[in-house]
Automatic annotation (TrEMBL):
Keywords: Signal
Residues of the signal peptide: 1-21
Name of this chain's protein: Lysozyme inhibitor LprI family protein
Origin species: Mesorhizobium caraganae
Alphabetized InterPro entries for the sequence: LprI-like_N (IPR009739)
Length: 139
């Protein structure tokens, strides 16, 4: 009996990570809240990674311009504070929002992050002489 119980526990522990991986790979067909939360979180992580990459590229282009770098840092910090506050508002109070709150917040964060990414990518692809572009062209 002990051997059977031990084998069963081992089997459950060994397959639990696989179930999570299968859940995450099937985001288009997510059926349960945990999977939807996980998928929304992964969407946000992917968007945030792209945003950070664009941000680093801009910082590289602003190497010799300390004043512009400071303005970008301040703008990005303020934007992150806005994004997080807006998404917390959209998600509703944690004590009353229920189990969908993590998904709502992550979806909001991914959406706003993708919008910000478009802004930063626009700065990276400005036309020569564009006075509205605070980032110098790549050299």
């Amino acid at each position: 009996m002990r051997l059977l119980l031990s084998s069963l526990v081992t089997l459950i522990l060994a397959t639990a990570p696989l179930a999570g991986a299968a859940r995450a790979d099937d985001c288009a067909n997510a059926q349960d809240q945990a999977t939807m939360d996980e998928c929304a979180g992964k969407d946000f992580e992917a968007a945030d990674k792209k945003l950070n990459d664009a941000y680093r590229q801009i910082m590289d282009r602003l190497k010799g311009d300390a004043a512009s770098k400071k303005l970008l840092v301040d703008a990005q910090r303020d934007w992150i504070a806005f994004r997080d506050a807006e998404c917390a508002f959209q998600g509703g109070p944690p004590e009353t929002a229920g189990s969908v709150r993590p998904m709502v917040v992550a979806n909001c964060q991914a959406g706003l992050t993708n919008l910000r990414l478009k802004d930063l990518q626009g700065y990276l692809h400005c036309e020569e002489g564009d006075l509205d572009c605070p980032v110098p062209a790549a050299q």
